[in-house]
Amino acid sequence: MSEENKTLVTEFVLTGLTERSWLQFLFFLMFLVICIITMVGNVGLMSLIWKNAHLYMPMYLFLGGLAFADACTSTSVTPKMLVNFLDKTAVISLAECITQFYFFASSATTECFLLVVMAYDRYVAICNPLLYPVIMSNRLCIQLIIISYAISFLHPLIHMSLLLRLTFCRSNIII
């Protein structure tokens, strides 16, 4: 067998979208505005649902849970990306990368499960309109939201356990 370099990669260099500094600053501003609009919309929706007792209905409870999951998805990736637009080194450690992956995967999976729950809610409303208030009680809705979050925080652990078994021993530059 031949001897090869088995040095493990502990950090990754993110090359970004462009090398031009003025374009990187333009991307920074664009993504910052998008992030702020997303967060204001999600936090506004969550606070509106929380403040108004008339909105404690299944559809709005699911929308509030979906808005929280969307806010978590946005904040799991965007801050590091914004820093990398302004930072010339643009380096992320393996631990940071794995942590960012976990939070992004769990919040994205939560969104998927909540969309499934919302589809079930609409199915019950259309197919059983007279039994809808009995079937989709607030208690069941909160349980479905909790189950969606619980499964979604456990699901990425499978991927992370498999990912951590890999060895990164080639180039650490990510394009």
UniProtKB/TrEMBL annotation:
Keyword annotations from UniProtKB, A to Z: Cell membrane, G-protein coupled receptor, Membrane, Olfaction, Receptor, Sensory transduction, Transducer, Transmembrane, Transmembrane helix
PROSITE patterns hit by this protein: G_PROTEIN_RECEP_F1_1, G_PROTEIN_RECEP_F1_2
Cellular compartment(s): Cell membrane
Listed GO MF terms: G protein-coupled receptor activity
Bilayer-spanning residue ranges: 22-48, 60-81, 101-120, 140-158
Gene3D superfamilies referenced in this protein's UniProt entry, alphabetically: Rhodopsin 7-helix transmembrane proteins (1.20.1070.10)
Keyword Transmembrane helix in record: yes
Membrane topology qualifier: Multi-pass membrane protein
Domain of life of the source: Eukaryota
Any one GO biological process: sensory perception of smell
Domain G-protein coupled receptors family 1 profile: 41-175
Entry's Gene Ontology cellular component terms: plasma membrane
InterPro entries: GPCR_Rhodpsn (IPR000276), GPCR_Rhodpsn_7TM (IPR017452), Olfactory_GPCR (IPR050516)
Similarity-based family: Belongs to the G-protein coupled receptor 1 family.
Protein's UniProt name: Olfactory receptor 5ac2-like
Protein species of origin: Lynx pardinus
